[in-house]
Amino acid sequence: MLRPDHTVLVLVDVQERLLPVMDKNEALLKNLEVLVKGALALGLPIVWLEQYPKGLGKTVEPLKSLLEAQGLAPIEKMTFSGVPHPEFQKVLEKYDHAHFLVAGIETHVCVYQTVRDLLDEDYDVEVVSDAVSSRVEANTELGLNKMIQLGATLTSTEMCLFELLESAENPQFKTISKLIK
């Protein structure tokens, strides 16, 4: 079960040269923006990954600005999975009983390998299925199916944010409701 006090959002490689070639990229960016704004409103820690930014560009706007405004910086990586990176390992040490929400691109490569490695380290992982994509829909589906087979569960942007709220009495309910509409 998702709880704000032990959930970490992992944002994978939503970069300038990748996003434009993703399947359903406009809906993807909208859901990622809602997810990041919701995570920030709920005070979730965010791990922000960038795959080889020299070649693939920086994280797209408005996500980059939202994250930088919170004093966050990306973890630049060359491995497809973010988990082996020393900075990611520090996050795992700090949040050793965390539940991870994972979103980003590409579903069947960097998202998949990050989820696989988190599961290998015995973390609970939920993939935000409407906030991931690949260049072709078949690879998105393949990546999601393989992650499920390995033990990840699926959620959606709206589903996970309302699960984190738990109640309409939560002080962030109006903020999250406005983001979803």
UniProtKB/TrEMBL annotation:
UniProt keyword Hydrolase, yes or no: yes
Location of the Isochorismatase-like domain: 7-158
Entry keywords, A to Z: Hydrolase
Domain of life: Bacteria
Molecular-function GO term, any one: hydrolase activity
S-adenosyl-L-methionine in keyword set: no
InterPro entries: Isochorismatase-like_dom, Isochorismatase-like_sf, Isochorismatase_domain
Protein name, per record: Hydrolase
